[in-house]
């Protein structure tokens, strides 16, 4: 495998930070859910059950997204590593088009 460029390393850090932030959000929500045990009544119990289901779904969804995107990210990194000048040309062209579109406003 080719060495990672600083841009690839930065992208990996951003991706890892996003996943860790999402994980922290889920853990904090779980903590709040457990602390809400002091609430009483049927409505409070229903709310806690719904929150618990949603947190489980979020955890499952995060794991699913990570598993599905990993091959795509690896393929992209491989392509960029093998075709750096084509990647630069495509990026420059895309930037030019976006700049022209934004300049018209």
TrEMBL record:
InterPro entries: DUF883_C, DUF883_N, YqjD/ElaB. It is found in: Cell inner membrane. Keywords: Cell inner membrane, Cell membrane, Membrane, Transmembrane, Transmembrane helix. It comes from the Bacteria. It is a single-pass membrane protein. Residues 20-65, 76-105 form the DUF883 domain. The keyword Cell inner membrane applies. GO terms for cellular component: plasma membrane. One of its GO terms (molecular function) is ribosome binding. PANTHER family: INNER MEMBRANE PROTEIN, INNER MEMBRANE PROTEIN-RELATED. Belongs to the ElaB/YgaM/YqjD family. This is DUF883 domain-containing protein.
């Amino acid at each position: 495998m080719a060495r990672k460029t600083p841009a690839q390393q930065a992208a990996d850090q951003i991706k890892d930070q996003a996943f860790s932030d999402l994980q922290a959000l889920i853990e904090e929500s779980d903590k709040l859910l457990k602390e809400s045990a002091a609430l009483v009544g049927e409505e409070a119990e229903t709310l806690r059950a719904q929150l618990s289901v949603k947190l489980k779904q979020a955890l499952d969804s995060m794991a699913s997204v990570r598993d599905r995107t990993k091959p795509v990210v690896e393929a992209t990194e491989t392509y960029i590593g093998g075709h750096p000048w084509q990647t630069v040309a495509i990026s420059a062209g895309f930037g030019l088009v976006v700049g022209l579109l934004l300049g018209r406003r």
